[in-house]
């Protein structure tokens, strides 16, 4: 099918522009679909209201998974690792803190990054105050800043309210202290009133937001260990669990006693494994539990946390297949919840949380249940198939729509989703009606490691299973064997699908005429005479050849197949009889193996002859007589420095040869048929007639240094044929043919290709359609589709299936709800997060109702007030995010007002202020201010003199004019104006003198204040030494 379309398209001149060749305006390479878990997955975040899961990566990408098959991938301009991510629940906003300490605001409705806030400091913790526009940021210095997301513009605004380390701890920083804020936890039932701060030193503070002071302190300095994470373990906010760097997990009371309640011994301390993450799930009865992961540990521990925990601890240890980096609980409905675990490699593992709860409750009974099973979240290929080893992507430009968009929308709901949170039961799910390979927009055929074949309808941006071919074990299977598929070929005209595997087994599937009957076709193939795929498959035949099959090609003029193997065998097969007509072995000194085959007819010594052009793995090209298998030429055509060949294609030569001269070896017209050969490091275009004769004649060539090419394919645009090259680093180049000139290129972030080891299967498979679409499958985790032709709609329902955020279900920030779904009080934050989740049955009892307009207005008054004016973190952060320079602003003397001595602004009460005052900073501030005022005084004095001189000149000129015109002089008006200007300037000078005196007084007061602070610090140090002695 592919070759026929190439031949048909090459023979046409659409719009009469084919003589000009493919131009840059004719192509627009772009990624049109990402499906699955992105490579380099690093962190989780979850919105329990909208039921959206976010997965951030190490290279600036964030993948979103919503309901009803919706997925979206957003890419940041900065390829930076995510440190912390959290949803603004039900508002379609996600906050992402990258490694450069930039706070990114992602808008899910607009699918873009709406704002980037540069934070002045190293961010160590992030927490959104849900149902309000505010969020907290903790830094490595122990300070907590309050920021606001503007509802209209999604801009981040720094608030005046701060929580300095000195205020929350009440003691100066020691050199050995870890002041970083590792967790910020709003207190349950009082989220807008109090927050819990956990510091790296182990110190814990419960902070009253309105009073701006700590109401409880505990934890203290922990010797030889640092706090790493924390979570609430009580619905009323009276107990908190804290994980430490030595493997300890301590439960602290947040009541007046503020003491340690108990210690959880889960085995992490014995191995000195730092606690990486803590999450708490609240459940009815005594089923509340804590989920624990350790850094670089495969162990995930779950422990029941109730009144009996101090006496007898019930726990469950889950051995994950690899070290855990993050975990998240996602909710399907009231009865189904899934625990997702993110592995170090980026794989996602899933556990049924109901089975975990059941095991913990019944583990002490006489018949304990079995351990919860681990499942891997992967692409929806059948579990029994294994990974994709080869693929074929078919597109139909003039398809007949057998299914409407409404039918596909319903299929999106019925088909099993990618994430296991909303699994559709096998009884309820139904497969799509498959009318035929040419009756739908896109068809993706996959060959798998167990020899099975899957056929998928990819008309929409998700995989719909329509046909599954796999032989069942019977008496004949032992003679044929099963192995990974390595080659696929589909011919739509003859309705023939051919597969080849590692063992040399070739299977020929003949399909019935289209359209097919309405029947469930996604069931294993059991032979042509048995039920199942009988309404689609007419017959299946087998042929056994030597070596692993590498390429299959059908002749358009006969019923023959050309098949190549990795051992250098070329076989000609009769399709109808399923017999081998001949097999030729082609030896190679470098590396044997056939890369590509193609049938063609050409003139040889004045006679028309059918030839089979063969490209070998060592970049050798030659031609065989397709009827006899004999080599026509005396020699093979090969480059001087050969590389591994990837792709060969015959061009019919109807393209114009006018190139740019850079890649042209000879100025020879290529209106003759030519052969394109692509290897890992070079591309060559030879004359077909010369290749048949065994003569090397290079028409065009292009060499590359690095990186290597991993895939090459041709496509047809409106004005000619083009070449798509995919490099191992994710670069995609579009080049014209036959000139091989570069038209456009893009880079697919996150895509990296590593060649497979010897005798192993590739991790990444790339399939190309005749019109330039590429399908790249990375293992069983992700699928990427790129397109090259502009204005080409590759998929249906792209807009609706890419909309993960449902605005109609959103809850307004004033507390009004547009959806019946209520948000559970859930605490989470990246690697240092926690989950506080209420079961739906108890949601009405524990759901907070503080997100009202009155609450937000009250918070606005609090957060817009500088509660600690001496803390300059807010000003520094604003300066780093502002565009306007303050030094460039002009100061008007009339705008300065001198306050009376008896007028003082009332300052709020502060905690530990004196210990944080710096004498040098205050002195420098006042000195700088005084210097500016002196400059302004001198400037205004010059202005006074200049104005007087100009006025005198102006007055003299006016008098002379009046004398000449009227014969008398009258200068009373001019003299009056001069007196008024002089009086005003004198007043301004008095103001400046008053400012200078006031500045001097303030400087003296600051010196006295600093001296008092220094004496107080000396007294505190003396008291400490006295208490120690």
Short structural description:
This protein is 17% helix and 34% strand. The strands form 14 sheets. The chain has a 5-stranded mixed beta sheet, with helices on one face. A 4-stranded antiparallel beta sheet has the order 1-55-54-53, with no helix packed on it.
Report on the structure:
By secondary structure, this protein is an alpha+beta fold. It contains twelve helices and 56 strands. The strands form 14 sheets. The protein has a five-stranded mixed beta sheet, covered by helices on one side. Strands 1-55-54-53 form a four-stranded antiparallel beta sheet, with no helix packed on it. It has a four-stranded antiparallel beta sheet with strand order 2-3-4-5, with no helix packed on it. A hairpin with a 2-residue loop joins strand 46 and strand 47. The protein is elongated. The N terminus is likely disordered.
Could you tell me the mean pLDDT?
A: 78
Measured by DSSP, the beta-strand proportion falls in 25-35%
Apparent shape: elongated
* Count of extended strands: 56
Which segments are poorly predicted (pLDDT under 50) over 5 or more consecutive residues?
A: 1-19, 423-430, 473-479, 519-531, 655-670, 811-851, 882-930, 936-959, 962-974
Query: Percentage of helical residues?
Result: 10-25%
Region (Disordered): 1-23
Protein name: Lethal giant larvae (Lgl)-like C-terminal domain-containing protein
GO molecular function: GTPase activator activity; myosin II binding; syntaxin binding
Domain Lethal giant larvae (Lgl)-like C-terminal: 690-808
């Amino acid at each position: 099918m592919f070759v026929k379309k190439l031949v048909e398209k090459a023979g046409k001149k659409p719009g009469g522009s084919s003589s000009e060749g493919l131009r840059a305006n004719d192509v627009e390479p772009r990624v049109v679909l990402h499906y699955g878990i992105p490579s380099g997955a690093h962190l989780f975040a979850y919105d329990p209201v909208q039921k959206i899961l976010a997965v951030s990566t190490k290279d600036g990408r964030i993948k979103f998974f919503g309901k009803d098959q919706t997925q979206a991938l957003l890419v940041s301009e900065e390829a930076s690792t995510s440190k912390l991510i959290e949803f603004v629940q039900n508002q379609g906003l996600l906050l992402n803190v990258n490694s450069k300490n930039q706070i990114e605001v992602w808008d899910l409705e607009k699918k873009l990054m709406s704002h980037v806030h540069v934070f002045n400091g190293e961010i160590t913790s992030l927490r959104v105050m849900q149902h309000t526009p505010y969020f907290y940021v903790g830094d490595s210095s122990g300070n907590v800043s309050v920021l606001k997301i503007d509802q209209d513009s999604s801009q981040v605004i720094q608030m005046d309210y701060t929580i300095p380390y000195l205020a929350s701890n009440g003691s100066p920083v020691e050199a050995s202290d870890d002041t970083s804020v590792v967790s910020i936890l709003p207190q349950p039932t009082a989220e807008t009133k109090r927050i819990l701060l956990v510091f790296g030193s182990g110190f814990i503070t419960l902070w009253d937001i309105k009073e701006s002071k700590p109401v409880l302190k505990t934890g203290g300095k922990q010797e030889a260990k640092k706090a790493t994470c924390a979570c609430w373990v009580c619905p009323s906010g009276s107990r908190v669990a804290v994980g430490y760097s030595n493997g300890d997990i301590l439960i602290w009371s947040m009541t007046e006693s503020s003491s340690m309640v108990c210690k959880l011994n889960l085995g992490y301390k014995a191995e000195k494994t730092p606690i990486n993450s803590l999450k708490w799930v609240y459940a009815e009865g005594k089923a509340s539990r804590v989920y624990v992961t350790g850094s670089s540990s495969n162990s995930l521990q779950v422990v029941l946390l109730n009144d009996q925990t101090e006496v007898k601890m019930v726990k469950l240890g889950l051995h994950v297949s690899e070290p855990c980096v993050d975990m998240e609980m996602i909710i399907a409905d009231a009865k189904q919840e899934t625990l997702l675990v993110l592995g170090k490699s980026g794989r996602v593992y899933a556990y049924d949380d109901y089975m975990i709860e059941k095991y913990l409750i019944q583990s002490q009974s006489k018949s304990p249940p079995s351990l919860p099973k681990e499942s891997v979240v992967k692409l929806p290929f059948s579990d029994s198939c294994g990974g994709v080893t080869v693929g074929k992507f078919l597109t139909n430009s003039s398809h007949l729509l057998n299914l409407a968009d409404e039918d596909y929308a319903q299929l999106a709901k019925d088909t099993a989703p990618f994430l296991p949170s909303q699994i559709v039961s096998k009884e309820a799910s139904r497969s799509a009606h498959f009318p035929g390979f040419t009756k739908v927009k896109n068809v993706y055929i996959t060959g798998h490691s167990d020899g099975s074949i899957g056929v998928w309808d990819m008309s929409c941006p998700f995989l719909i299973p329509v046909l599954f071919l796999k032989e069942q074990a019977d008496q004949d299977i032992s003679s044929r064997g099963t192995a990974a598929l390595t080659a696929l070929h589909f011919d739509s005209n003859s309705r023939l699908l051919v597969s080849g595997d590692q063992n040399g087994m070739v299977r020929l599937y003949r399909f019935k005429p289209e359209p097919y009957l309405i029947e469930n076709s996604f069931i294993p193939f059991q032979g042509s005479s048995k039920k199942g795929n009988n309404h689609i498959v007419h017959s299946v035949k087998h042929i056994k050849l030597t070596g692993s099959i590498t390429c299959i090609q059908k002749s358009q003029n006969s019923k023959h197949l050309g098949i190549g193997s990795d051992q250098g065998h070329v076989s000609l097969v009769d399709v109808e009889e399923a017999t081998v007509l001949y097999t030729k072995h082609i030896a190679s000194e470098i590396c044997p193996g056939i890369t590509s085959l193609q049938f063609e007819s050409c003139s040889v010594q004045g006679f028309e002859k059918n030839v089979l052009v063969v490209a070998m793995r060592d970049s050798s090209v030659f031609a065989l007589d397709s009827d006899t298998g004999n080599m026509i030429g005396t020699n093979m055509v090969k480059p001087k420095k050969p590389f591994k060949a990837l792709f060969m294609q015959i061009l019919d030569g109807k393209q114009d040869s006018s190139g740019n001269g850079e890649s042209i070896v000879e100025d020879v017209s290529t209106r003759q048929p030519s052969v394109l050969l692509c290897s890992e490091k070079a591309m060559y275009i030879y004359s077909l007639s010369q290749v048949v004769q065994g003569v090397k004649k290079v028409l065009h060539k292009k060499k590359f240094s690095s990186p290597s090419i991993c895939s090459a394919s041709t496509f047809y645009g409106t004005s000619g044929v083009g070449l798509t090259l995919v490099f191992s680093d994710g670069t995609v180049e579009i080049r014209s043919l036959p000139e091989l000139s570069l038209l456009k290129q893009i880079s697919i972030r996150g895509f990296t290709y590593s060649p497979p080891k010897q005798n192993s299967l590739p991790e990444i498979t790339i399939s190309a359609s005749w019109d330039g679409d590429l399908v790249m499958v990375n293992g069983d985790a992700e699928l990427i589709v790129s397109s090259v032709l502009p204005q080409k709609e590759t998929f249906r329902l792209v807009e609706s299936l890419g909309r993960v955020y449902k605005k109609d279900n959103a809850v307004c920030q004033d507390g009004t709800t547009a959806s019946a779904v209520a948000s559970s009080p859930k605490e989470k934050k990246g690697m240092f997060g926690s989950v506080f989740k209420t079961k739906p049955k108890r949601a009405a009892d524990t759901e907070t109702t503080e997100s009202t307009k009155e609450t937000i207005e009250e918070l606005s008054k609090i957060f817009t007030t500088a509660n600690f004016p001496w803390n300059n973190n807010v000003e520094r952060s604003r300066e780093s995010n502002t565009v306007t320079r303050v030094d460039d602003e002009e100061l008007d003397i009339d705008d300065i007002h001198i306050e009376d001595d008896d007028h003082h602004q009332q300052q709020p009460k502060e905690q530990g202020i004196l210990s944080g005052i710096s004498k040098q900073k205050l002195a420098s501030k006042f000195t700088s201010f005084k210097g500016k005022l002196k400059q302004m005084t001198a400037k205004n004095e010059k202005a006074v003199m200049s104005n007087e001189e100009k006025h005198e000149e102006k007055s003299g000129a006016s008098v002379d004019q009046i004398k000449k015109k009227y014969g008398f002089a009258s200068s009373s008006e001019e003299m009056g104006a001069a007196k008024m200007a002089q009086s005003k300037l004198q007043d301004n000078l008095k103001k400046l003198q008053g400012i200078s005196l006031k500045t001097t007084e303030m400087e003296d007061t600051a010196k006295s204040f600093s001296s008092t602070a220094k004496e107080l610090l000396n007294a505190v140090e003396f008291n400490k030494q006295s208490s120690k002695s």
